[in-house]
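Hi R.,

Here's the input for the zinc ion complex you asked about:
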Amino acid sequence: MQYQIDTIPVWEALEYQGSCLLCTLHAKTEAGEIERALGSSVMEPGIRVRTNVLGICAAHQRMMFQNGNRLGHALLMDTHAEEVLKKLEKLKARSWHGRDADGKQLAGKLRALSSRCIVCETINTHMKRYVHTLLYLWKTDPKFKKQFCGSNGVCIPHAADLIEASQKHLNARQRVEFTELCLDLLYNHLAEDEKDLNWFTQKFDYKNKSKSWENSKNAIERTVNRLRGYCLGNVPYEKPKK
Ligand SMILES: [Zn+2]
Ligand SMILES: [Zn+2]
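And here is the predicted structure with zinc ion in place:
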């Protein structure tokens, strides 16, 4: 077996009943990786070396900054910047005159210095494992299958990941069943979100002022998160405080 199967986090994410269980797992993993990057891994030489080489993307820099651990953040970025300076020195030392005056090539090299992220890459590895585990549970555990069928399903990007991975992990009959289920869940839930969102817009009409908001107050968040994966509203692994 390629992956070690740990079914507990996937079960927990399903039972949480968020709008997409893979978004729940992604958000949880991301928070853990940010914490780890700023905490223990600052002192782990192996991870430090990889961080120095890969760097960290803008979105994860923002999360690290919001975390408030300025010293951990500064230590990581100091040694990463040193590594980048070495690479820039080499680029500066090259002759960019004559045949080498290739702005496109230089632009490519500069982009390579700023396009990777150790947090993104670690999360992607975990997410591949979770996708595999979800498909494994779906085909081997009738209880999971039943609960997944009755769940909120997944967002569009994660439906794509699951359907793509099902080509490898499910047989032909299972693939047809799983694909139909994913599309049905996606369609039905997005249709419901859209209906609520439409009512949300109508509520701004003075004629509807006295009518109930019904289930439309978080319709923007639900619709956007369904279309693009979790990015708005409550953290999808913490129940909102009442
Ligand atoms: Zn998702
Ligand atoms: Zn990142």
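One thing worth noting: The pocket of zinc ion (ligand 2) is lined by residues 56-57, 59-60, 117, 119-120 (CB under 6 Å).

Cheers,
M.
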